[in-house]
């Protein structure tokens, strides 16, 4: 079964950043493993003024 992502962008931010911190070395690795659409995540979080920082592997 494919994982689903929260629709609320703030909850999405928390879920993604926690996974990046605890389990994944990059957003690409997370999306590949979970079957998530990277563009959809980036777009959803940009709407609430967060962008992915590869250097720290977090949205901020």
Descriptive notes:
- With 60 residues, this protein is mainly α.
- Helices cover 52% and strands 7% of the residues.
- The protein has three helices and two strands; from the N terminus they run H-H-H-E-E.
- A two-stranded antiparallel sheet has the order 1-2.
- A hairpin with a 4-residue loop joins strand 1 (52-53) and strand 2 (58-59).
- The longest helix is centred in the N-terminal third of the chain and has 14 residues, at 9-22.
- The radius of gyration is 10 Å and the shape is globular.
- The protein starts with 8 loop residues before the first helix and ends with a strand.
- The mean pLDDT is 95.
Number of helical regions: 3
- What does the radius of gyration come to? 10 Å
Q: Which sequence of strands runs across the widest sheet? A: 1-2
Shape annotation: globular
The amount of helix comes to 40-55%
Strand content: 5-15%
SSE arrangement, N to C: HHHEE
- How would you classify the helix and strand content by structural class? mainly alpha
* Span of the ends, CA to CA: 29 Å
| Low-confidence segments | none
Biggest sheet features: 2 strands, antiparallel
Let me know the number of strands.
2
Instruction: Give the mean pLDDT.
Output: 95
């Amino acid at each position: 079964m494919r994982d689903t992502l929260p629709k609320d962008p703030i909850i999405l931010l928390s879920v993604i950043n926690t996974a990046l911190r605890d389990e994944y070395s990059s957003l690409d690795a997370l999306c590949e493993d979970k079957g998530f659409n990277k563009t959809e995540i980036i777009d959803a979080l940009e709407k609430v003024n967060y962008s992915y920082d590869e250097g720290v592997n977090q949205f901020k």
